[in-house]
Specification:
Chain lengths: ~500, ~350
Amino acid sequence: MSDTILELRGITKTFPGVKALDEVSFELRRGEIHALMGENGAGKSTLIKVITGVYQPDSGQIFLDGKSESIRGPLDSQRLGIAAIYQHVTCYPDLSVAENIYIGHEKAHPVTRKIDWKELHAKASELLRSLDADFGSRSIMGGLSVAQQQIVEIAKALSTNARIIIMDEPTAPLTKRESEDLYRIAEALRDRGVSIIFISHRLEDMYRLASRVTVFRDSRYVGTWSVDSISRDELIVAMVGRSITQLFPVRKVSIGEEVLRVESLSRTGFFKDVSFSLRKGEILAMTGLVGAGRTEVCEAIYGITRADSGRVFLSGEELKAAHPSEALRLGIGYLPEDRLKQGLVLEWAIATNVTLPSLERFSRLGWMDRRREDAKAKELAERLEVKANSVHDLVATLSGGNQQKVIVAKLLTGDMKVIILDEPTKGVDVGAKTAIFNIMNELAAAGYGIIMVSSEMPEVLGMSDRIVVMREGRVSAILETSSATQETILGAAMSAAETERA
Amino acid sequence: MAERSISVDRPRGLRTFFLQWEWLLVLIFVVVNVINSNLSPYYLNLGSLVGSTNAFLDMAFLVLPMTFVIVLGCIDISVASTVALSAVIMATSFNAGLPMPLAMALCLVVSTACGLVNGLILVKFKELPAMIVTLSTMIVYRGIAYVILEDQASGHFPNWFSFLGWGSIGPLPFILIAFAACAVLFGLLLHKTSFGRKVFAMGNNLTAARYSGIKTDSVIVAVFALTGLMAGVTALFLTSRMGSTRPNVAQGYELAVIAMVVLGGVSTSGGSGRIGGPILAIFIIGYLTYGLGLVNIKANVLLIIIGSLLILSVLVLNLRFGKGHRRPASPNAKMIAAGKAPDAKL
């Protein structure tokens, strides 16, 4: 047999409306650390879920030790010796470390089903020792740090005799030193003959640890290289590709005076020293990898959370109270990332959703004026071309794109100056995307200052005037879109390059 | 640029009109009265039917704000203790020499403060569920009432005070008129004002309400303070009717009140319901109690009947209205259910 332990051939997986994996191949050798890279949404996570049996591929084959296997569920994958460790550890925080390691496969007496706790702890301690853990098997899981919890997860993987361990962005929540510890553990596992698939956005992780790297882009397999043979720039080009789809409307830009200024905004653990400004009629894209702190910054500006330090000015007036009602009063509107949970009351009609942020404008002495409410909702829904028969249609019956338009309509009931759109095209189809872009252009032309948080490079480059790139909670670059390329953006989002301020 | 016209029509039609929970309540109400009048020849007499309302309307004042609390997705089980505490403080302060009108005002102030405390604890410590907070204050308020009065009764109120519970204006008991006025006010507040709109929004999706700039903390405090105020009103009418008060008055009112709200079709997961349902439920349970009392059916049997009625109503609400009526059948329905759970924790 060759030294290939796992091979995937021509894996395709589609979800309604989206092709998550398109004829993807992947090959993992015995005892190697193999990095898997790609932009957000490139299909890495879907591939992991196919390997661990969470998803069934629509077509394609999986070979383990050269034998074709179908992995129908997590139990199957466990039996085959595959284990996954996720960025956010899923554990039972109130149970002990040993219980967490052995949960689901604890050895019990054949008749009484009584667990031999002594043996369980002895075995768990042995595993922890082999990983150089600095905590015991009786520690409570919830009291451990994220790094320690990851070690428990690794011990759990080893306790099931895993031969393939998948680590999904394990270093993202870790400090540099904790990452070093994890590297050492990963190398020790490799030396024991375990094969590791390592997913990370950090280029340094990959260069430090992996021997080979596979890149995915737009749900497709791009290629596999030996780490020594590919430069950082070549790798970024492989991840970004060259194709820019032309779905962005042409716009006339007329940028006015400054409307929003953010000065060294910081919130411990989330973002630090974030400064930028926004002018009237400008579309400012805010990009970076997932977890870079973009949404957190926007939520702090809007007052959902309170920043520890730093100041926000709207047309020269400082924003004091940290509450959305204050932001709305001064003219900052926010379209949240999770529209179902944060943006809409799904069981309500379009009209009542639209007026929710500005009920005071549609009531006199607290008394609702439903006729005015209906009229305003009709006006906005028609202006934004919401596909509905009546403003009393329930929002839950609308498509994703139309729901998004209803949230945009919410922002237009008041006198907004700044509109923050957090991933406005997430989960909407191409047609609705273009509609949302058109709306953004119209709003910018009408003098609104717009911040668009987006992970999608073509969208960032196609829609914005300037780009704020964030990396690990800091602004790593502010670029003029006219001179920016996907490479420079991704470079700023991923490298530890010098922070430059525009 | 409007290429497509969107109407402002509301969904109407006989089907939607008659498929409302309130019709079922009206039916139950009629059935209760028919059974009662068959059981007792003394029952069907307009004078006694109207007159009997003062026997059960004192707790009805609590049903109104409790509807707000439950629409909000919360619960308040401290209301009965608040009634006891405010009644006891009114009685002791009167007997200590405070003029009766001032003692009555004090009663309302104390009860509002009790509700305010509930609300403030809830918004300051968001990790505590309303059930636990009001369970604690329920014990505390009742405890204070016992400390003040021990196991004594306190009364000797001026004669005019009995007018609240026993007086009538023309043929109508004063308590019925007072309740009708409150019911109208609360109904308008819930269904016609921006405050009511906020309560419904928060009950449906607290996160979205907050992102929409609603001062959710203020709304919660206001609703609980309002509930406290109405507990004071209940204390006034109850004390007037009884002539004196003890620390153990209004025992069990909280559950009866919640039962009426739920029987009235208000969803305990928050965000839906109309004020008319709970008001109908007050009269259903009230007349059931009155009628069965006339034929000497024991109070304990009555509890069994009310309990069964409650389970049945919740079942019917879920079966009949759970899928088609309250929740639109949509691919999002599951996500609604999943997404809502954490928000409903209040």
